[in-house]
Amino acid sequence: MRVTEAEGYSEPRDSISHDWLNILSAWGMSPLLVPNIGTDADDFISVYAPQLLVLTGGEDIGTSSLRDENEVRLLNVAIERRLPVFGVCRGLQFINTHFGGSLGRVENHVAMPHFVEVTSSWQKFYGAEVKVNSYHNTSIMPDGLAQPLTATAHDLDGNIEAAVHKDLPIAAVMWHPERSGSAEGDIKLIRSIL
User: Fold this and answer.
1) CA–CA gap between residue 11 and residue 166 (Å, rounded)
2) What is the pLDDT tens value at each position of the chain, 194 positions in all?
3) At what angle do helices 65-81 and 90-98 cross, to 10 degrees?
4) Total-model pTM
5) Where are the alpha helices (DSSP H) in 27-61?
6) By three-state DSSP, how is residue 108 classified?
7) Of the residues 4, 145, 170, 180, which has the fewest C-beta atoms closer than 10 A?
């Protein structure tokens, strides 16, 4: 979840868009929200036994150390236990940097739908080309992808818009399934890693 401030007074909060709750419900999933403070990731995953870890978008990496540290712990436990992970926008960026990749800046990607070219391995989910929504200024450049990941979609400039881990059940996209203008096929992709 994002770390946000309450209006009018100082009280940091964890928050998530209702769009996420709506799409997960439509997909037949019951979300369990993980706070960014005081959570022991190993105990959390042991006690609640989630079937999927979703790393959502919002906030650039480095904006909130609480969120960054929490997601590092959660991702490490997910990797150790081979728990499926689905990353969205920041989630893809986070997964990429976690495995040693780098990020760069892009322009004209905030509230600018565009087409992406999909590799053959993911065409069963999206087809060869799909129009996606876009809400990011930070991206994965063609030479910035972490070695354990394989690119599965590119924008028309060659920037990476989706990737999958070569050995673990981890997949991620730069577009937002929870927002309007999302690419159909995301639920099929998620089911493929479960």
Assistant:
1) 41
2) 999 988 888 888 999 999 999 999 999 999 999 999 877 888 988 899 999 999 999 989 999 999 999 999 999 999 999 999 999 999 999 999 999 999 999 887 888 899 999 999 999 999 999 999 999 889 999 999 999 999 999 999 999 999 999 999 999 999 999 998 888 899 999 999 99
3) 70
4) 0.95
5) 41-48
6) coil
7) 180
State the virtual CA torsion across 76, 78, 84, 85 in degrees, nearest 10: -40
Structure tokens at 167: 């050995």
Read off φ and ψ for residue 72, nearest 5 degrees: -60, -50
User: In sequence order, what are the beta bridge partners of 104?
Assistant: 139
- Beta strands per DSSP E along 6-144: 12-15, 53-55, 85-88, 104-105, 114-118, 129-132, 138-139
